[in-house]
Amino acid sequence: MSQMKTVERYIFKGKRAIIRVDFNVPLDNNYNVTDDSRIRAVLPTIEKILKDGGSVILMSHLGRPKEGPEDRYSLRYLVNHLSKLLGRKVYFADDCVGNSAVEMSGKLKPGGVLLLENLRFHKEETRGDRDFARKLADLADVYVNDAFGTAHRAHASTTIIAEFFPEDKMFGLLMARELSSIKKVLSDIKRPYVAIIGGAKISTKIDVLNNLVDKVDDLIIGGGMMFTFIKANGGKIGKSLSEDDYLETAREIISLAKSKNVNIHLPVDAIIADDFSNDANTRVCKSDQIPDGWMGMDIGEKARQNFSSIIIKAKNILWNGPMGVTEMSEFVAGTKSIVRSMAEATSGGAFTLVGGGDSVAAINQLGMADKVSYVSTGGGALLEFMEGKELPGVEAIMKN
Ligand code: AMP
Predict the structure, then answer these.
(1) Domain range holding 368?
(2) What is the CATH number of the domain that holds 307?
């Protein structure tokens, strides 16, 4: 990626730069940011532009609003936090396009920072609408993409907008670092190579699973998606999360693994609950013998030990997705045990890479981000990049 165009070589004096950032951060019930690593990650890009004498317009999505604006997904709740981190006032436009955005961006002085309201309050964003992209583009002189987390989406603000800046489009420093670090990893894989995949659904991770199955030595599966695999194997899963349309897919992945001599590891036991709640009654049971009316919420103690013994022997480890419902304090033990094993493997010389919001949040909660080799801000984007797919957000900047 020697031809990578980044903010480093551009002089922003007197320019307004619109930066696509990934401020899709977790908020608590009082709208406090509970993990600001995604915000901190783009500060160097913002600071470079401001230091040059430019001004900055930040645009992001937050959550998954369905029909237009929803207060709980408003980016206004990030203004104070961001302002503290930057040590300067941050202006806020209550719509990302339209009069307020046009006026406020027009008034920006060198050193000024404006945050736009959630892009996904407009359906045009995810549809990749050209007119909407043009309205965003009209706010600025330069386009910077520093949102690795959404680079796999051909949305208006991540991809289409780049068309309007043929000469003045570039990667932010975070994007550049993500791309070059992951490329480095891919070019030198050591064995045993272990992938740990968790999270809610198999449906969102099929491509990744299919792709990893013939590259890794061991594939560890946890999280909600493990129950579709367990059911596909004939196990009883009670009312655990299951995607019945994907039972056949799960069987195909299992048989592909067998034919390639790859070990798939499913948790032998699970922490089960009688309700999807932190206050539910809980028990530990075999993960394929979950009673009716109970659901699996995390991997059990034996599974933690099994997974740990595989991880600490590995030399190359990729992890994406939590082992349990980590939003609830009762069900974080499995995910935390993965973090500790990854740290142990790293100190023994393994290369360990973690991506995805929940996994990264778990690592940060334990204060162990510096105990693994690389923490990526990307989840889906990281996985697609590792699969060798072109990321539309990257391509849009690279092409002339
Ligand atoms: P993903 O975005 O696909 O990585 O999935 C993350 C989500 O998976 C988190 O919100 C977790 O609560 C959820 N999750 C993990 N384990 C389970 C489980 N056993 N049952 C239901 N949801 C789960």
Answers:
(1) 189-386
(2) 3.40.50.1260
